[in-house]
């Protein structure tokens, strides 16, 4: 469930554009109003506001925001204002450039087949080449094989599973992990081609047959990026909310604003309520309070608004 | 240009369905009429005929055809009657099962990005799993890496090229080939991720800088399947008509009906006129004549009809 709160009735896109324009004018920017409007509109509404603003004032709203607001708040708003598909294309581009395997794995494994395809289409339109090219040319070795395979696949999205295949592929995975042959091409093949339903059946079978979850089996010793990327892929496929909760918890502990922003912005319209719930059960503390402690100013207000405050 | 000839005006789908029904009734099948109708309708018209037939007679036209006609003619008709996307999904499934790398490479490299995607979607709908899975689980080693990468990619489809990239990647390809490191992961990366326009710039640059075409450079000695698959990929990307002409010429020389059928059926609505033209220039002989010599009966009549006779 989303945490995003949209007022009822919601102002028209033209009214919102006018409100924003007023907030930009005069001495300084009225950030409270900017947050009040944009942090409480869904993706379709934000797009309409961008279009209305451009139409009314012959000015790009995103460019104007860049000159009006600053720092972590600007960065978070620049992520938020796009619709989820365009935003992910932008995040993917930055991640591919920086060799940030985690974001690439996330978007490959959390999105549905049609969402991932839409991200790749948006990537083509925006950057005039493919995400696969950027991922492939910025990485090397085993991690490249894994990332290119995960990004490139067009998984079957149905619910049908084959229990015998789950059994045999759980065994293949277990053997590769037991031999510490993490880069075994069978691991990449299975993770990158099977449907999510099939993979979850395989992971369950792994736990039943070998008495340990595949992610725990992988965690043990290695601090290798490749093994870490494997774990991210498995966790994003088997339980994205738990994955994001743990990621967010670590980012709050370490004060990593980039990751805090990414999780809140990308999940606020999706499943941030579940993520918050898991966080609060696990830590016995309020997520809102934790964000309040670690952030400040308009950035803090914006994140709290996305959390439904 | 297509060789397919559709009469003007064309009968309605209901009229065609009635004509076919009559051809099936009584003693034996009137194959001439079956060919007269189905070999002279485009993909959209064939689909309408299938729907009209099912509606009128509560019977599946394809199943009925299977019981009415036989041998190579039946096989060719069974390929032809589907629309190109569904047909390719079926061909891909058979090829993946049989480990026929050539068909998998063809469909990955000849289709546009959106056509390949449509084939993969049709594959999901028809087989309830992905083409990537079947290709990956039926192959091993280097050829698996190449095939899965080619099938899995979602290439950028635009015309923009980067000349410096073409130069540097021509050099990478040349070095890998000179070292006979055919399975070098850079070759797979470049062939499977770059846009076709970019790849053609790279192949041209290869010829200019190294005085030999990349396919010739690859041909020399190896009879390895992997190298053969690389050549097919490069030729399908750089010049599909020349590729299909050579394939067809070989199949005519060796009497390989499967391949003759595949080329004629899959290209009749696309570019069979160019393929025929290349064939006739190269052999100084008529393609129709060559087909006449190598085939017989209704199969022969059907192929000649697809060739525009």
Automatic annotation (TrEMBL), chains A, B:
GO biological process: response to cold; response to heat; response to salt stress; response to water deprivation
Pfam families hit by this protein: Annexin (PF00191)
Keyword set, alphabetical order: Annexin, Calcium, Calcium/phospholipid-binding, Metal-binding, Repeat
GO cellular component, one term: plasma membrane
Residues noted as binding Ca(2+) 1 in the record, renumbered to the chain: 24, 26, 28, 68, 252, 300
Positions contributing to Ca(2+) 3 binding: 295
Record bears the keyword Calcium: yes
PROSITE patterns: ANNEXIN_2 (PS51897)
This protein's name: Annexin-like protein RJ4
Organism lineage: Eukaryota, Viridiplantae, Streptophyta, Embryophyta, Tracheophyta
């Amino acid at each position: 469930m989303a945490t995003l709160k949209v007022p009822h009735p919601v102002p028209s896109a033209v009214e919102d554009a006018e409100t924003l324009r007023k907030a930009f004018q005069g001495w300084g920017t009225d950030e409270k109003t900017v947050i009040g409007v944009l942090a409480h509109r869904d993706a379709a509404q934000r797009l309409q506001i961008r279009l209305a603003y451009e139409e009314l004032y012959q000015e790009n709203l995103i460019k104007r925001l860049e000159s009006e607001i600053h720092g972590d708040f600007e960065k978070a708003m620049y992520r938020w204002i796009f619709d989820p598909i365009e935003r992910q294309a932008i995040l993917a581009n930055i991640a591919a450039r920086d060799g940030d395997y985690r974001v690439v794995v996330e978007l490959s494994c959390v999105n549905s087949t049609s969402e991932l395809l839409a991200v790749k289409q948006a990537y083509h339109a925006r950057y005039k080449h493919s995400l696969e090219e950027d991922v492939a040319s910025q990485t090397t070795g085993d991690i490249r094989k894994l990332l290119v395979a995960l990004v490139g696949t067009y998984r079957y999205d149905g619910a049908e599973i084959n229990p015998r295949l789950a059994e045999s592929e759980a065994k293949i995975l277990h053997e590769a992990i037991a031999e510490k042959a993490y880069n075994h091409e069978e691991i990449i093949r299975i993770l990158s081609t099977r449907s999510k339903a099939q993979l979850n059946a395989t992971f369950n079978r792994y736990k039943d047959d070998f008495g340990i979850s595949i992610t725990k089996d992988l965690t043990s010793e290695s601090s290798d990026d490749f093994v870490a990327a494997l774990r991210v892929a498995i966790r994003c496929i088997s339980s994205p909310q738990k994955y994001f909760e743990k990621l967010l918890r670590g980012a709050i502990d370490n004060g990593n604003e980039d990751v805090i922003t990414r999780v809140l912005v990308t999940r606020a319209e999706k499943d941030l309520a579940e993520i918050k719930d898991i966080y609060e059960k696990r830590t016995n503390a309020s997520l809102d309070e934790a964000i309040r402690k670690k952030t400040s100013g308009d950035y803090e207000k914006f994140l709290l608004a996305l959390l439904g405050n």
